[in-house]
Structure prediction request, 715 residues.
Amino acid sequence: MTHMKTLLGVALTSTILAGSATADELRMSWWGGDSRHAATQAGLEACGAKHGHTISPEFTGWSGHFEKVVTQVAGGTEADIMQINWPWLPILSADGTGFADMNQLSDTIDLSSWDAAQIDAGTMNGALNGLSVSTTGRLFVFNPGTYAKAGLEVPTTWDELMAAGPVFRDQLGEDFYPFEAAGLDAALIVTLYGTQKTGKPLIDPATNTVLWTKEELVDAIEMYQAMVDAHVIEAWRDRAAAGNVALHENPRWSRGEIAGTYQWDSTYFKVSDPLDEGQEIVYTGILSQDGQQTEGIYRKSSMVFSISANSDNPQAAAEVLNCLLNEPEGVSAMGTARGVPSSSAAKALLSDAGAIAPEQSAAQQLVLDAEGPAIHPFMEHPDVRSAMSDNLELFAYGEIDAETAADDMLYGINEALEDIK
Amino acid sequence: MGGDSKYLGLWYVAPYVIGLLLFTAFPFIASFYLSFTDYDLLSKPEWTGLDNYQKLFTRDRTFDKSLKVTLVYVFMTVPLKLAFALFIAVILNYRLRAIGLFRTAFYVPSILGGSIAIAVLWRYIFADTGLVNMMLEGIGLEGVNWFGDPENALFTISLLRCWQFGSAMVIFLAALQSVDKSLYEAASIDGANKWQLFRYITLPLITPVIFFNLIMQTVQAFQEFNGPYIITEGGPLKSTYLLPLYIYDKAFKSFDMGYASAIAWVLFVIIMVLTLIAFWSSKKWVYYAGDKRS
Prediction:
């Protein structure tokens, strides 16, 4: 029995020791596609070697990552360094204590690489919880080759896009569409159209209230149906026939049969990598409409890097984070896998090295040049999104009319905002 | 062993007991408490009494829809799966050449299980441009919108569960092989045909196993998550939005752990009531060896 006790003691001690981190053992989590995974792992190796730390990567796709992070933060088991979506900051750290305050680590992190607006966007209740990795915005993306086959130039106005639908059907066939929008993308298109027309954001960041009237919302919702009727986008029912498949996994996108979409500029590689040989895409500006009040760009920090409030090694985490975002070793390895960097130091390094693809650079400039009202982070709150997407889906399937959809959207969004408060 | 022997057994069962307490009993009890609270994961739970249950039964249209979808799914899937598993088991009970190979082949889907990879595969097979529609179009029929049409989507998810019939089939097969062959011989001499042999001998004698499979498959069907999550994400029009998906969304997307716990407990009560009904009804149709009725 004595031997058994000794054995058990050794086993327990080994387990405890194996689970505890030494001073330079860190974890970093992020979401993304293959190109981002490869670049980030290379960056962690380079920065780990430079600063003498070992960083374990934890990466997933976008789907489910939010849930994973929330669960980890709630349990205090989150990674030392995390890639966080900017709208998650008020959810995870409304009082500024959900993540480490990087102002306290400014001896290690060179904060001068970010301008005041970027620092402000990552600050919660006075604590710098997230450093902007890149700025992103939704842009129209078109396949010029398919448009050329239809005898068209890529559109610059809503009217041109609407006119392209019948031409695609007549010239290329029923399976070809000049654009696509379903689910969240459809909700964002509706939001963009209404924002341009009214000049107002759907939710006011200053007051947490819905600014659109029911009539304005009805008008935007009806625009969606007009696009379906004009063969500009596939009907929701037909788009759903492929199952829960993202655009970049859809072979019809790869083949160019779907010739347009509305995407983040930072997802350039994600949507361009799967294209078949001979297919190409171009990011264009925001489509315009007659009498528009604003371009309505949906622009935000694409993501921030945060340090865990529970990290045993915040100083080491800060060294790695600074390396990834500011130092040549990390910056060159990370490249533009998260879009054009927000950090001026990283941007200068990559520009000098010619490492920013001209298409990416041009898309980023379109985002920065466009104007539009400030975006409320709660636009991406799951309950707000659900209120938009679920009711738009009911409308798209003909279950409810536009007025009822608008009523239910407003009710759902207001209820969600009330709960969030 | 000496004086230590009385504790040795405890050591052996300790890992299981600790696991049971930590990962089953504690969450089970905690979720009951949380169902009476407002809890967002990041701050302390606030006691709200019956508010969650009141909202659930009076104001939550999504719950109504999800509950209805779940019940339709369970009552469609379980009989279909059991019937199919029994049908295949009866076939595999014949003495055919290479029967071992066939039994293995039919069991393979259950080894693969309802994993993410299989759900993704299912998504491609039943997509508008997938294998099933290609086959339908190949024989001159029109392709079906399996996922985009609310009337078809739940059935397609149900088929995925039915495809994993192997474990139920193996249990049926074992039961079929335990039926006394002399009963068949006696009935055959009396002129019974194959259907009568099955209906009046096989079926009554395997009712305990049918009952066991019924309970197990019902409980599993109520817990279905992977298929609808991966293939349709609950859509379209929430036609595949089973209660486990709703619990997941409330817990991990809306951070409403209290409300999610309340839904989980309602689901638990539904499963328990249906199981009790099944046990009660079993007195009338399940026959055990040694039973006075048998």
About this structure: The first strand of chain B starts at residue 37 and ends at 38.
